[in-house]
Fold this sequence. Notes:
By secondary structure, the chain is α/β, with parallel strands linked by helices. It has helices at 10-22, 57-73, 92-106, 118-124, 151-164, 209-216, 320-334, 387-395, 401-406, and strands spanning 3-6, 28-32, 48-50, 81-82, 86-90, 114-117, 139-143, 147-149, 168-171, 174-179, 185-190, 195-197, 200-203, 230-240, 256-259, 266-269, 279-289, 291-294, 299-302, 342-353, 360-363, 370-374, 424-425.
Amino acid sequence: MATLIIGAGCFGASTAKFLKETDPNTDVILLDQAPFPDPAAAAHDFNKIIRAEYDDPMYMKLALEAKEAWSQADPVVTPFFHRTGALWSITAARTKTLVDNYEALLGPGMAPLKILSLDETRVRFPLLESCRFEGGAEQCILSPEAGWADAAGALQAVIKAAVNRGVRYEVGTAAKLEFDSDGTCTGVSTTDGRSFPARRIVLSSGAYTPWLLAESAPENPDLHAGDRMKAAAVLMCLFKVPRGDTGLDMFKDAPVLVHPYGDFPAECIPPGSVGGPDLAKCTHEFPYTRNAYNKASKQEISVPPLSKSGRMTWTRDLPDALKANSANVRDMFFGNSVQGMTPESYRLCWDIATPDEDWIISPHPASENLYIAAGGSFHGYKFLPVIGKYVVQMLNGELSEEHARRWAWDRDFIPIVTPYTPRGDLRDVPGYYE
Length: 434
Ligand SMILES: Cc1cc2nc3c(=O)[nH]c(=O)nc-3n(C[C@H](O)[C@H](O)[C@H](O)COP(=O)(O)OP(=O)(O)OC[C@H]3O[C@@H](n4cnc5c(N)ncnc54)[C@H](O)[C@@H]3O)c2cc1C
């Protein structure tokens, strides 16, 4: 019987590809709500940032492995990577942490970072001449090796590579996991009445994971996500940048910009994507939950709208209060240095956050044959070319002690607070409706 992967986003797609690479004879089904690449996946995006700057050495090491794949080692994804560099506003203490991490991994003096004062930054990058850098940033670091990827393109290429190796891609929405009388997971049923029996079931359904677990076994709290995972949405906006020396010319050779402080912690990926060479993507780092009552299990669970909603993908149909946040992000970064940037489209992009921002890549202790690969915590995409390798190691019981401990379903979740900690609910946003 097959290994069934539910969800063909970053975790699921990569897992499918690595399962086949590891064992060409194994039978793999990749089930997703839509033909690939699914526009509702967080991994399906205009672009995503690829960088190795992590305060946590474990993720920096993994991100360096992934960056090597993006920049040269993996021909499936290299065509989608753009090495523009990335510029971060940061504190001096955090810069030291990053330099120490790099040096521990790459050797003394090998941190690929250039430190700039805020004034030097404004001079070197005229598009940031009026950037407010508010909220505690002390300096900037320029990471020339970083950049962005055409996210949907790379996701599609990874799934295609998996399908070419024999993975069976099925379109269908998982409604409930199925269990035998011992509580062993035996497969999944879909909303259109089909059943997919499987030997191993990997749940990589991103933001929908806690809801799906609760729906599958409402009477069994041991199976539920509890406080381990929370679905949350972050607002992105594509700004059209007019031609000319105060418009697109300002973005020439611009790096990815990240300012994780102040009232509008934010990111901006400069124009250059195939789908919109004059569109800059600005993200407001402020995750909103959407708490809903799950009748079956009698609990509140944060979940994206379950009906097919245009808001899962790009739209102009969002409350003014959210649109104002995107405008504030634009103004915080560019003030009057870049002129005429007008909002073209918005998207609430859903991911699943864990309290410690570590992933969950783990057998589910409450059910044999059920495995979880989720919890991207708004930083998972860059690992697309490598994360499946670790999910396969988990399936085979071969994860390193550190990875197994850090990604376990049952672990001591020590909460951290970052700009990606969920801290508002969409239903409290004035004008929000579904
Ligand atoms: C606004 C935003 C910006 C981000 N920026 C970055 C970035 O710059 N760099 C970076 O590294 N990471 C970034 N991330 C994080 C990254 O996108 C996610 O961590 C990653 O995509 C998570 O992968 P996943 O496979 O868990 O979920 P997803 O990619 O969301 O995939 C889940 C898939 O499961 C499917 N699914 C769900 N339920 C079912 C069901 N019942 N039946 C069948 N299929 C189902 C979904 O339709 C979807 O296709 C960002 C995330 C967001 C939201």
